[in-house]
Structure formats: C-alpha cells, structure tokens
Design goal:
This protein is mostly beta strands. The protein is built from two helices and nine strands.
C-alpha cells in the first residue's frame, strides 16, 4: 500500500475513545492518504457522507466541516480539538504499514495486522484513550 514517494493510501473504519468526563467516542469510516508530513484524512458517516476533511503540511493543519474551516498550527493541535486527544501521527503511519513503532504514552497492538486490525492504547498523559482501526483490504 505504500508508493515509492513515501506516501500511502488506506481506508476502513476507525474509532477513538477518550476516557474524559464525560467519555468521548468518535467513530466512522475514513480515507487516509499521505505521510506524517503532509496528507489528507477524510472522515465519513455510516451513509458515506463526508463529515470532515483534514489537510496538513509541516506548517499547518486545517479541517473543513460543511462550510466551516478551522486552522491550527499542527496536526496534533487539530486532532486534540476534534477528538479530545492528539494521536501519534508519525507512529500511526508506521502502524498502518505493520511496523510497531513506539509512541510516547501509546502502546500499539499489531497481532491482528494480517487481518487488517490495529489497536492502540494511551495510558499517559491522562485521560486514557484508545484507537481501533479496521482496514479495508483491496
């Protein structure tokens, strides 16, 4: 799934749970392309309609939801605002390729990677969070 330019494309279902008060859960289908330095993430609802479109570069990140566009200085800041937690983006791209790269506070579980399943847990900093991905296979 990775091209020679160091970018890739993945699609499937994703769920992020944050054990905040009250707990937050974000889930749906996704289409992800790019790499940790620049790319696009499209989040879709169960009917296949686009809920949010996230673009990022090394300089900034933005999310488009309907007619609203919000910009942040980094993808970490943007995912923190959207999901209630920031995700380890560089490690996530490695996990999507089956490489269990460590990320501060996160522990990935790739035992079911051959079935297209990735799970990761964050224990610090609080609140705890979990990420589940089920990839669609071509």
């Amino acid at each position: 799934l990775t091209s020679t330019a160091g970018t890739g494309y993945w699609s499937g279902r994703m769920s992020v749970q944050v054990q905040s008060a009250p707990p937050q859960t974000t889930s749906g289908s996704f289409e992800l392309s790019g790499n940790p330095r620049q790319g696009e993430l499209v989040l879709l609802n169960p009917l296949g309609n686009i809920v949010a479109r996230v673009h990022w570069t090394a300089e900034q990140a933005s999310v488009t939801q309907g007619n609203t566009v919000r910009e942040k200085a980094s993808l970490d800041e943007l995912t923190q605002e959207l999901l209630g937690t920031s995700l380890p983006i560089a490690a996530l791209f490695d996990w999507l390729q089956g490489r269990n790269t460590p990320a501060q506070g996160w522990q990935a579980e790739l035992d079911a990677f051959s079935d297209g399943k990735i799970t990761a847990q964050r224990t610090s900093p609080l609140p705890e969070a979990s990420l589940r991905i089920v990839l669609e296979r071509p």
